[in-house]
Amino acid sequence: MAQSVVYADLKFAAASTLTAPTCPAAPDGDDSPYENVPLGPVPAVPSPGRWPRCWRVPVGLQAASLLLLLLLLVATVSLGACYWQVTRSLQDASRQHAAEQGRLAQEVSAQEQELEQTRLELAWATAELQRAWREGNSSQQQLAMLQEEMQKVQRELRASESTVSSLRACVNTDCCPSGWVLYRSKCLFISVEKKNWWQSCDDCREKSAQLLVQG
Fold this sequence. Notes:
Layout: E1 7-9, E2 34-36, H1 59-135, H2 140-172, E3 181-183, E4 186-188, H3 197-206
Helix pairs in contact: 1-2
């Protein structure tokens, strides 16, 4: 059996407009063997031999990125320098603290020797006083002088004992508050924060201290 053939009248629009023109109406839609097929927009296809279009980064964005990287580098170097400076200051303070402890230990040893010498002098004065009493040859004036000398030696002994006790306390325990360092019999507070003159004075006043000025 023969198959029926249907013809389609296809009309293509110009490539520049990419729109289908309006087709005229058929004289008789039921009797015409032709059909008008409207065409939609034709998608743009890149021509052969051409590469897709590349996007370029704006020059301002590149400059801003380089500036940001430079600022980050400068900030990193500055933080490293500050860390090195603080570490060096702490190391110097630790060495000074160790030297101060050694000096205090020497002073304690010297004071102990002086205390022992004072005790010997007191023993000698007591022996002389007892001998003077036993012999009965000394006068009241000599006895008063010996008593006065003995009292003087006793006062020196008590002062030496007090000094030795305070020095021992400084060597065996920390004389300064937490966070302070001992330097030449003084407690120093080394601040790692950067402050101006007035802020430093106010900070020292709050800590009941005085601002140290290095010449």
